[in-house]
Structures are given as structure tokens and as C-alpha cells.
Amino acid sequence: MGKLLSVTLSVVLVAAFFTASDGIEQKAEIEIQEWEVPWEQSRPRDPYVAPDGDIWFVGQRAHYVAEFDPDTETFRKIDLEDGAGPHTVVVDAGGNPWYAGNRANHIGKVDPGSGKITKYMMPDDNSARDPHTIAINESGDFWFTSQGANSVGFFDMKTKEPTIIPVPTSRARPYGIIMDQDMKTPWIALFGTHKLATVDPATKQLREFELPDEGSRPRRLTQTSDGVIWYGDYSRGYLGSYNPNNREIKEWPLPSGTSSRPYAITVDDKDRVWLVETGVDPNMFVGFDTHTKEFIASEAIPSGGGTVRHMVFDAATQSIWFGTDTNYLGRAKLY
To answer: How many whole angstroms separate alpha carbon 315 and alpha carbon 145?
Structure first.
């Protein structure tokens, strides 16, 4: 078992406590723990909470899918083919993990009992050659991005066939993807340009929406209960919001400024947005209250983080799970 790193931040919610590094008033109490992954330099990333509460994640550099039991603090690895380069993993309603074979042109299903891998290849024309990030809709079908191929895909779970939608803007680098509140409509961050996108699930027509600054580079997305889309502007160091109803865009400079490079982002059930500033060492775990429009936390990740690329909120445990390039699986417990 890997070493356990933990840090507890005892912060009284009503107190006026300021961090020494950035002057952010701490109005949220969090506890960060990290478990060292037992497979060295494997780049553990993109954790997902399974129906049974276990955490699945991928090792991008070491080509595996793995399971972590938070109760026993034990890891289990399922090896993929060399060169698979898994980029993300999701778990369906039946408890089966599915991964994006980013470097091997496929989406794969893992039998969690036997470890058997079933691969579903992408089209031979390279229109989705590098499946990147996956989001699950209300029916259990997948929407996914292909960054290098410049496309968004729909994977039908009944037919096991993909439908590929090209992005009109060249080299747009479709990256992060989430499902809208209706669980039918995907929203996509176009990391190679200053745009967001969405796809009509019925017609498969893709629409792009420009952000006001041409230098913006949105990387990952999340959504609050009012339907507003939130993004981290990786190049400019801002947290941004886009309201699909009136197309209003707002921005807030991040605590670490232009060096922040916001990457992983998610939202909790109190509509607090959480993101990680990856341009600073150590990476900073930052909270933002979308009601008061103020930053409420900024804390260093104990292992340094290296780069935290994706994270997910688990309402049942009030926790955010993340992986680090320093080879740790992390959990931020929210209070």
C-alpha cells in the first residue's frame, strides 16, 4: 500500500483568516488527503466514483485502469495493452469501467471482475483517432472529445457504434466535456481557441460560442444548478462563467494571477466551484462561491500536485477526488 499523506485545514467558517500566500479569506473548511499510487511515475488521473463508492482512475503513462477502495485504502490494477495511453475513465450504471484509449484509437470496456478488456475501435479515417474525455448521458450513452482529431463523438451503447461530429474551427482542440443538467446535451471546451461548443443531441449539429478575449483558452468545464457553465481560462488565469440563456459572460482573476493555469474544475452541491491552479508549485486548490462571487479557499496540495488534470465531486461523501502528476490519488473533503 502506498504512503498516506494528509493535511487537515481547521478553519472556522465565520472567522476572518487569510492565507499568507494570496490574501484569500478562508470561508470554507477542507481536508486534503493523498495516497501514493504504488506504480511509479504512472500519471494517475481522471478519477471517477463508481456506484459502490470505489474510485476508478487511469495511469496514462503506464497504460492501466485501476480501482481504489477508500475504506481499505487498497489499490487494484488492470493492465491495458502497451501504448493505450488511457486518458479518462467513467463507470456505467452496472459498475463497468470504460476508458478512452487516447493513443490507440479506441474506447474500451473493462469487466471489473475478470479484468477482461473489450475494445471498440474508432473509424479508420482518423476522424476520432484520439478519444480524450468521456461524459455519460441520461441513457448511458457516451459523448466524448478527440483533441487531435478535432471532433466530438457520440457512442451509442446499444449499437456500440460512434457518430463523429467535426468541429468547424480548425485546430480547436476539443478537450473537456460535460453533460448539461438535462443529461442530454454536451458542452465542450475548445482548448485550441477562445470558444465553447455544444451539440444538439437530436440533430448532432455543433454550435460554437466565442469568449470575448481571443487569448482565452478554456480547458475544462463544470455547471452550477442555475445552468451557468463555468470554465478555467488556462492561458489568462481567470475563472469564467457563460450563461446559455442570455449568453452573458463574466470573469474573475484567479488568486495566482496569470501564472495560475487553471486545469481541473468541478462544482459541489452548494454551487461552490473548485479548481486547481497548476501553473504554480505547489498546485493550489481554490474554491469560489458562485452566490457571493468571491474566492473562499486557496490551499496547497501536499504532494505539490505537479499537474492536477481532472477531478470529480462525490455528493455522498462531500468529497472531491483528483489525481496528480506526482503520482498520488487525492481527496479533498468539504465541510
So the answer is: 26
Q: Cis bond leading into 282, ω under 30°?
A: yes
**261 with 284: CB under 8 angstroms?**
no
- DSSP symbol at 226: T
Angle at 324 between CA 73 and CA 264, to 5 degrees: 115
Mean pLDDT of the chain: 94
User: Do 37 and 44 touch, CB atoms closer than 8 A?
Assistant: yes
- Structural domains of the chain, with CATH: 43-263 (2.130.10.10)
What separation in angstroms does the CA of 60 have from each of 82, 85, 104, 166, 173? 11, 5, 12, 25, 19
Render pLDDT for 145-180 as a digit per residue (tens, 0 to 9): 999 999 999 999 999 999 999 999 999 999 999 999
CB-based burial label for 138 (10 Å; 0-12, 13-18, 19+): exposed
Q: For 101-112, give one letter per residue: b (16+ CB within 10 A) or e.
A: bbbbbbbbbbeb
d(CA 107, CA 100): 5
